[in-house]
Structures are given as C-alpha cells and as structure tokens.
Design a protein that fits this description.
170 residues; 1 helix; DUF3617 family protein
C-alpha cells in the first residue's frame, strides 16, 4: 500500500527530473501545445484521470514538480519515435531507478511510458524491499482552456480545480 501512495508523485517527479536534467543537453522533449489537455495515468495500482489547462510555463509533463528527490540523469536521447531517458533518484533511503519513453506530436497527443524500480521501501524483513511498477501517462489536447481557467489549473474528476502554478496566483 505504501508503494502505491508514493507511485504517482514519484513518477511525476521523475518525469520532471528527466525534463530538467535533459535541459543540460541539447535534446529535450518539446512542450505540449497550450490549451486544455485530458490526461490518463495508468499504473499497476489502477487508472486516474484529470484535465490540465497548460501553457509553456506550466506543462508538467516535462516540468519537475518537487525538489524532494535528488535525481541523476543516466541517459537522455532522441529516438526515431520520440525520446528515451533514464534517471536514478533518491531521498531518505528511498531509491528510484526509472526508464522512460516519451512519444507524440505534442500538439494533439503525447504518451510517456515508464518502468520504475523502487528500493528502500521498508516492505521486507530486512527493511529494504524493491518493487517494480509500470506507468503510462496518455494525454490528448481537447481544445482551448475553458472560460475562468488559467494555465496551471488541474481539474480533478470530481470537478474540483487545483492550481499548481505557484508563480501565477489565482
């Protein structure tokens, strides 16, 4: 259960870490087109969805969400179909080894697939424990942001809006 609670934030942090680490190289995934995007996250633990009103500054597909993890990019390269990357992140005894593939045209759709191995979860008798998870994030542009929405708005399935852009207050 503990692993499921950490899965989504860690995967997003790793995705973001890959984006920022890639900035040091000439190659990095492009930003998605501004507008309203519908995103579905599919993991071993299930599916979750949301909508995001984004612009170049708030595109969280390649933006680091948290500085809690320390990530080291092990490889980042452009492929014929998109991008591949790897990262090793750690914090407080938790280690995350992530391999990711990002594809899409970034104007109308994008897909990120990750294979994540987490260790240091404390789920085994020796306190270590490693678990491997697969994650896919599928996103598609559904149009312009709706009236009243601003870039950085995350619209949850229950209709509640969470603003995730600290540089632009609501």
């Amino acid at each position: 259960m503990r692993a499921r609670q950490f899965l989504s934030p860690i995967v997003l942090a790793v995705l973001g870490g890959l984006g920022l680490a890639g900035a040091a190289h000439a190659q990095q995934p492009p930003k998605r087109a501004p507008g309203l995007w519908e995103t579905m996250t599919i993991t071993n633990a299930g599916r979750s969805g949301a909508k995001e009103c984004i612009d170049a500054a708030t595109d969280r597909l390649v933006l680091q969400l948290t500085s809690v993890l320390t990530c080291r990019n092990t490889d980042f390269k452009r492929t014929a179909d998109g991008f591949q990357a790897g990262a090793v992140c750690s914090s407080g005894g938790l280690s995350v080894d992530n391999r990711i593939t990002v594809t899409g045209d970034f104007e109308t759709w994008a897909r990120a697939e990750a294979l994540t191995t987490m260790s240091g979860l404390g789920v085994s008798a020796d306190g270590g424990g490693a678990r491997t998870f697969s994650t896919a994030i599928e996103t598609r542009r559904i149009g312009d942001c709706e009236p009243g929405q601003i870039p950085g708005d995350l619209i949850l399935p229950n209709g509640k809006t969470v603003h995730v852009n600290p540089s632009r207050a609501r």
